[in-house]
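User: Structure tokens for both sequences below?

Assistant:
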Amino acid sequence: AVAAADCPTEVNVLNRDVGGSGVYAFEPNEITVCEGDTVKFSITAQTEFHTFTVDALGIDVELSAGETAEISVPFVRRGEFELICVPHQSVGMKGTITVK
């Protein structure tokens, strides 16, 4: 059995862009959830436009600077799914959502 602590049902994600530094990242950029759970994400864009996009799961959230969006995602299949910020993917703004 998987411990409840290993199956978060709420995840806060910061789309980080340390003002003008050129450093872009999801915080956290490795997210693990459990198959069968619906997870509420609270996603915040720091100072620029960002996306929270997982093509394989049909997730595509656009955020203006300083905006926070909440989405609930049912995870119905296991696997590793690539998380990207569309405008900043080329500068390394990506991560992984693992469904176990």
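Moving on to the next sequence.
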Amino acid sequence: IFFTPPQLRDLTSQIYSQNSGIDGKIALKQVGDARTHNLQILHESYEPGADTGEDMLEHVASEGGVVVSGEIELTVGDRVAILKAGDAYLFSSQEPHRFRNVSDRTATVISACTPPYL
């Protein structure tokens, strides 16, 4: 039920193995067993220049999150926004999407996805 930072599951290697176009350091840490609860909650960290890649992500799910610190550029379909701390998003993950840190600071995002993606 409760998790300390060391108990979060590191999924970083999974995103890199599924998308060879990723640039920069992205770290993904999952709360608990997402498959058991049909809900994936992630603590995401994007270093400056990090990018999920020109090949947009697409998967069957709903996805939402809140930027905790820094800035992240989010592209969903043909819509693009730079989200800052306190800004949030929610969309169908079947729409092509991409996350990119265009700032000079690390961006931190807390997100949720159902059903789990990784």
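User: Anything stand out in the second?

Assistant: The two ends are 20 Å apart (CA to CA).
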